[in-house]
Design brief:
The protein contains nine helices and 25 strands. It is α/β, with parallel strands linked by helices. Strands 4-5-3-6-7-8-9 form a seven-stranded parallel sheet. Strands 16, 17, 18, 20, 23 and 25 form a six-stranded antiparallel sheet that branches. The longest helix has 18 residues.
Length: about 600
């Protein structure tokens, strides 16, 4: 399902000229000083695009951001790095290919409409009748809206080529066969370099995919063959369910809110890796940072995150609204009768720019071609896709593994003083979510941010420093190395309310430098999955929380084949003893002799990808 723009909590969804650009525009409770451009331009709305150049502007919301919290694009356009040559396929709800700020960058060879009722299978322009229809167009604008054309704003990579496939726009589109076609199985997708996937699962119970047999996961693994063997990447949204989780569209909600415990303790209710696609190394999972440089309120956390992009908050002009900081300005379906900005829905607008009947809307957005309300990890992912397009523009020889490494090594640490989240259990205190952790390779990692906020200028500089960044052409896969049976102390009962939990070890004999890690495990017994914290400790002593306690899985501890993943160990040595620890934070029977309520770690396996 699409990772929709989060909406205010009342709806509970998952969800010109240089002179004009430099003017002060009145909006929603205050003035919005447009940001000065680092290079000459004539994109009239550029000054409001804080994610490109943040000077504290509010983008028509009631609150502005912190200067400098942006993608750090300074100097790249002047140096000629604009995304030229990079091809980005937007896997979403379709794309308005005639939009005046996108059409010049649309590549007809990268388009497909899978709706059997579509008049043209090579035109993914949505009708605009479904609430999610504008989503893909807003995503595409963040990546590659055209620059210096006298219209709207611009994309992160304004010279990149855009393609689109409508995986999420019709009931019959989201099938395994179509997914395989989109991810390199059809002629239209085989030329793509970057796949932007601002969609995902919001599971209430584990999705037990087998990495070695599931067709979608195998297709994602096969992306390493594209680009002449250099490989393509998927830039995927982490999700918008840090605080709330509503489940699949149309599914009944649980009787008890599964996120109560997570909210009470400041933990993420969902986990990015609960969508198994996020466990694949070819998928670069992206969290969201707001204009003040901290995690966006909705951004789902997890050890499978690689980096963060900019997703903002809700863009609300009403200062009484929660999370009222600025959202992002991007393209909308063209015209005032469809899209996020419509004349007939003006009373629902988040701010005056998105209200075509307001004075600001009539002056700056009269054709309703843009929105100042694009947010979510749906917005954060395309900001990273744009940066990846810049990297390929600067150095087309980079492999997909180079891209992962460069983004991780050059990301900026934000929210550096964030404290760990600690729980008081019956038998002691448990650090359920660590603060920033420096691994044995010297890289800083946090489950909320991955390796930090992408830094375009630093990443491009590293990309240009050498033609290749990783030796060899093949990613070495250790295969599943199992810990099972009596030799590993399994099955192992997990004590209740004990921060020491239950631990099992295995030894990895081969010398490898880690690029990604997966864990597959089996849980049995009568405990609740949502009460379990699962962590992995590397031979170097780095601790990564793979599954945070108080998570959304308020079901019995019956999961054979739960797939988890971590990027926290990247660049560490893999050889040595690994420890998996499971902690049950519920003290419901901690003083009783009855062990029926305990969860059991039945088995687990480790898989390391590296070189």
């Amino acid at each position: 399902m699409p990772i929709k723009q989060p909406t205010p909590r009342t709806t509970a969804a998952w969800l010109s000229t240089l002179a004009v650009a430099a003017s002060v525009v009145a909006c929603g409770g205050g003035a919005d000083p447009a940001a000065p451009a680092p290079v000459a331009h004539n994109d009239p709305l550029y000054g409001h695009q804080w994610h490109l150049h943040n000077t504290g502007q509010a983008n028509f919301a009631s609150e502005g951001g912190t200067p400098g919290i942006d993608l750090n694009l300074a100097g790249l356009e002047a140096a000629g790095v604009r995304g030229q040559g990079a091809k980005v396929l937007v896997v979403d709800s379709g794309l308005d290919i005639r939009h005046p700020d996108l059409a010049a960058n649309v590549d007809a060879a990268l388009l497909r409409n899978f709706d059997p009722n579509a008049p043209d299978a090579n035109d993914p322009t949505p009708s605009g009748q479904h609430p999610d229809d504008p989503h893909g167009t807003a995503v595409a604008g963040l990546i590659a809206a055209v620059a210096n054309n006298g219209q709207g704003g611009r994309g992160v990579a304004p010279a990149a080529s855009l393609g689109a496939a409508n995986l999420e726009s019709c009931p019959s589109c989201n099938t395994t066969a179509i997914t395989l076609d989109i991810y390199g199985g059809a002629a239209f997708s085989q030329g793509a370099h970057i796949f932007n996937a601002s969609y995902g699962e919001d599971a209430q119970a584990p999705l037990l995919y087998d990495v070695d047999t599931n067709a979608t996961l195998l297709a994602l693994r096969g992306l390493s063959r594209l680009r002449g063997g250099k490989g393509a990447v998927v830039i995927k949204s982490a999700g918008n369910s840090f605080r709330d989780s509503t489940g699949e569209d149309g599914d009944p909600l649980p009787e008890v809110d599964p996120c109560i415990g997570a909210r009470a303790h400041g933990l993420s209710c969902q986990n990015a890796v609960f969508d198994p696609e996020a466990a694949m190394p070819q998928v670069l999972v992206v969290g969201a940072v707001n204009a003040r440089g901290v995690k966006s309120s909705y951004s789902t956390a997890g050890a499978s995150l690689l980096v963060s992009g900019l997703g903002g908050e809700y863009g609300l002009a009403d200062p009484s609204g929660s999370q009222a900081g600025p959202a992002l300005l991007s393209t909308d379906l063209s015209g005032c009768d469809r899209g996020y900005v419509r004349k007939v829905q003006s009373e629902e607008a988040r701010n005056d720019f998105d209200n075509p009947n307001s004075a600001i809307g009539q002056r700056l957005n009269a054709q309703c071609n843009y929105t100042a309300g694009m947010n979510g990890t749906s917005a954060a992912a395309p900001t990273v896709s744009g940066v990846v397009a810049l990297l390929l523009s600067a150095n087309p020889n980079l492999t997909w593994r180079d891209l992962r490494l460069i983004l991780a090594k050059t990301a900026r640490q934000v929210d550096a003083a964030i404290a760990p989240k600690t729980l008081a259990l019956a038998k002691g205190r448990y650090v359920a979510e660590p603060g920033w952790t420096t691994n044995a390779a010297g890289l800083k990692f946090h489950n909320w941010y991955g390796y930090g906020l992408v830094d375009a200028a630093a990443a491009v500089a590293m990309a240009q420093a050498t033609s290749r960044h990783l030796p060899g052409d093949a990613l070495i896969d250790s295969g599943w190395i199992a810990a099972s049976g009596a030799a590993a102390g399994l099955p192992l009962a997990v004590p209740l309310g004990d921060p020491q939990g239950a631990s099992s070890t295995l030894r990895l004999p081969a010398a490898r430098t880690i690029e990604a890690v997966q864990v597959r495990m089996g849980i049995e017994g009568q405990g609740r999955l949502g009460d379990l914290g699962v962590e992995l400790i590397s031979p170097s002593g780095t601790r990564s929380v793979l599954m945070t306690a108080h998570n959304v899985f308020q079901v019995s501890a019956q999961a054979d084949g739960l797939l988890l993943a971590s990027n926290a160990f990247n660049e560490e040595p893999a050889q040595g003893t690994w420890t998996l620890r499971v902690v049950d934070v519920n003290g419901r029977q901690a003083r009783d002799t009855d062990t029926d309520a305990q969860a059991l770690l039945a088995h687990w396996s480790l898989r390391v990808y590296g070189r």
